[in-house]
Amino acid sequence: MKKILIIDDEEKLRGLLARIISSEGFDVVEAPDLHTGFKKLEQQEIDVVLCDVKLPDGNGVDFLEKIKSAFPLVEVILLTAFGKISDGVQAMKNGAFDYIVKGDDNDKIIPLLYKAIEKAQLHKKVAALEKRISDKYSFAAIIGKSKGLEQAVNLAKKVAATDSTVLLTGETGTGKEVFAQAIHENSLRVGKPFVALNCSTFSKDILESELFGHKQGAFTGAVKDKKGFIEEANGGTLFLDEIGEMAIELQAKLLRVLETSEYIQIGDTTPKKSNFRLIAATNRNLKTESEEHRFRSDLYFRLNIFEINIPPLRERVKDIAPLTQYFTRQFSEKTNKKTFIIEPEFLFKLETYHWPGNVRELKNVIERAVILSNGDTLTTDVLPYEIQQESNKQNKTVSAFSLASVEKLQIQKVLNYTKGNKAETARLLEIGVATLYRKLEEFNIQ
Question: What are phi and psi of 29, to 5 degrees?
């Protein structure tokens, strides 16, 4: 039910308005002055405020500015006994939905309320969507507590507030684009375009057109002007994924753009300007590539202002459990299934797999497991053959030391339960913390 707040010191008029508005099915809250009205706004979720202009403790036109500052999604309709053009103009400047005269405009109140509520609801939907997008691409969306990942996140947070070029390195599937989006969302360019282009997807000529754009008639098939990604990213962030795959000739053109902020579309002669922040990513060692003349050394040094390495999943065993839980919830909702219980042996097999495809591969494995599962528990029989086989091979290597195998599994289970808290893990296992650290090193548990 939509909630309306009426602020008016005339009790009879306030009561009359409350009865009229309640008869339309709205929930009505009343306040005799501005101070009480503001308290109501703080305590309850109000959609629309009907506020008198002249009140014992202040002026409604001035109070409107305070409401919009503290509660920007609330719509305000001002009521006055004496219609003054100057007050009406100021009210609209301060963000009023409308300004009406008591008595003369009573028949307008209900239609106005419906319109104001419609606008308030639209603003709330937009705000909720923006929050979901912001949450999705925030640093909080990077799941994991392993030391290597935390170091990468801390570096990304520090560089996000600057306008420096960032080079993200790491194997395919480690989440480099997630990092790039989080850096953008926490930068001064948030709200401006985030434009992503994978350099390995296109041939040299097509990539040049995608990057710089082209004029009509520049080449066969260029039937109209086309903006390039550099132009689209103006004011925002350009993310070039797999930049190590870019042809040497294009690297020279990109370097010029980075140094001058100018570029020329294919088929044009007039330079254009674009102010963007560059975040590049690669799964190659660009230093080695440049030393072996497969990547321009001058571009490498221009890109390598601030490098962040994202470790592979096999070095982040501690992150597998929270990632598994996150993906399980995500795909349970997506497939309209119950949230699954994760069997300890299922998780153990995931934690002993080497993950050549990293987080992307884990995500795909969990989606497959959720689809194949018939009950409400994720069991090992829904895991791909290669994961089960690798785990079985590892078990065979310690068959002569079965006690060690059981010990390792128990430590991993308790670590997962305590979310990596070493002191609590040692307490539950009834061993000393020093002993636990020795075991972690012995079993290569991170």
Answer: -120, 140
